[in-house]
TrEMBL record:
The gene is CPB1. Its EC number is 3.4.17.2. Its main location: secreted. It is an enzyme of class 3 (hydrolase). One of its GO terms (cellular component) is extracellular space. This is Carboxypeptidase B. Keywords: Carboxypeptidase, Cytoplasmic vesicle, Disulfide bond, Hydrolase, Metal-binding, Metalloprotease, Protease, Secreted, Signal, Zinc, Zymogen.
Length: 417
């Protein structure tokens, strides 16, 4: 026991410095039954500083749903009193955010440097991209598809056995800075690919027949910011004239019904769609890469958290994609695979009805570019830890997600177009 405690102490000591300490911040889950409740939440949001966790913004809340949001310690009495007065039912998901924030570093791994079962900072991920390419020259190559607002490189790993004119699957992670489990999955995917190639028949076939483009972190500046200043940061770190507010929501910044619904025109909002489609260097670089590889990219997968959902187009509209029936049965089968390992429950369906309408997302955009298989994964969990999923769940989360991704990849390989 003493040994264990000592390890925990070391793990906490190695936690990143954080500008905001989140002492006493609470995360509440409120049942929103009707329009009156919705009005009350709007009022709360306008008078208090509320960080919406799910959905992403007050405008996306629907009656007969739940909303998860984070409030500061000094607002919690006011907010909880108001909820009680109006008889809104709620539960406290997290009673002190700081504790959960520290508890995310619960990995038993003592390894210094890169680890697949720990959250890695950007410097470590950057070095890893080089190392995994150097160590697997026949299978992995690294390129730079652009630079971020703050001038960091955006690395892309191409994973597959070298062969000309192969179809490809594009996977990105780390759109939203605080969704740390997402970059962890992209790293895991590459490791599993190189580890099991030539050993496991399924992965060997996939890498012989397909290329995977893996973008481990899209929003690098935001990710760095979550490690150094504010763990709960979501957006990019771009600035613009006329406002002191920073950042655009990269997943509201694509030219797919841009800013028509579920996005904000206010630069201070967490779902700010930006001054124009592809205004962000990060989304522009991603879109440019996909546009220039449209003849080979057959599927687009984008990894977010949290909610445990597998979503497909559309989110910017309630219209259904042309191959809705096919996407629905593919999602169903992928979710069944995912569930088979640890019993993790996922829901699936078109974004607009399954989670909420939101325009400017990369999956809708990719689909409208002609990529027939476009999915958004919302990884673990369902709100117990939210964005602060403990490191001890990285392995299980990545293992189960691999099954779903491999299923989609095999399906795409059998249904080339
Ligand atoms: Zn996200």
């Amino acid at each position: 026991m003493l040994v264990f405690l000592a390890l925990v102490t070391v793990a906490l000591a190695s936690a990143p410095p954080s500008g905001e300490h989140f002492e006493g911040h609470k995360v509440l889950r409120v049942n929103v039954e009707d329009e009156n409740h919705l009005d009350l939440i709007r009022e709360l949001a306008s008078n208090n500083q509320i960080d919406f966790w799910k959905p992403d913004a007050v405008t996306q809340i629907r009656p007969r749903s739940t909303v998860d949001f984070c409030i500061k310690a000094e607002d919690s009495v006011t907010v909880e009193d108001l909820l009680d007065q109006h008889e809104l039912q709620y539960e406290v998901l997290i009673s002190n955010l700081r504790n959960v924030m520290e508890a995310q570093f619960d990995s038993r791994s003592r390894a210094a440097g890169h680890s697949y079962t720990k959250y890695n900072d950007w410097e470590t991920i950057e070095a890893w991209t080089q190392q995994i390419a150097d160590e697997n020259p026949g299978l992995v190559s690294r390129s730079i598809i652009g630079t971020t607002f703050e001038g960091r490189n955006m690395y892309l790993l191409k994973v597959g056995k070298a062969n000309p004119n192969k179809p490809a699957i594009f996977i990105d992670c780390g759109f939203h800075a605080r969704e740390w489990i997402s970059p962890a999955f992209c790293q895991w995917f590459v490791r599993e690919a190189v580890r099991t190639y030539g050993q496991e028949i399924h992965m060997t076939e996939l890498l012989n027949e397909l290329d995977f483009y893996i973008l481990p972190v899209v929003n690098v500046d935001g990710y760095v910011y979550t490690w150094t200043k504010n763990r709960m940061w979501r957006k990019t770190r771009s600035t613009q004239a006329g406002t002191s507010c920073v950042g655009t929501d990269p997943n509201r910044n694509f030219a797919a019904g841009w800013c028509e619904t579920g996005a904000s025109t206010s630069p201070c909002a967490d779902t700010y769609c930006g001054p124009a489609p592809e205004s962000e260097k990060e989304t522009k670089a991603l879109a440019n890469f996909i546009r220039s590889h449209l003849s080979t990219i057959k599927a687009y997968l984008t990894i977010h958290s949290y909610s445990q959902m597998l979503l497909y187009p559309y989110s910017y509209s309630y219209k259904l994609p042309a191959n809705n029936v096919e996407l629905n049965s593919l999602a169903k089968a992928a979710v069944r695979e995912l569930n088979s390992l640890h019993g993790t429950q996922y829901t699936y369906g078109p974004g607009a009805t399954t989670i909420y309408p939101a325009a400017g997302g990369s999956d809708d955009w990719a689909y409208d570019q002609g990529i027939k298989y476009a999915f958004t994964f919302e990884l673990r969990d369902k709100g117990r830890y939210g964005f602060l999923l403990p490191e001890s769940q990285i392995r299980a989360t990545c293992e189960e997600t691999m099954l779903a991704v491999k299923h989609v990849a095999s399906y795409v390989l059998e249904h080339l177009y």
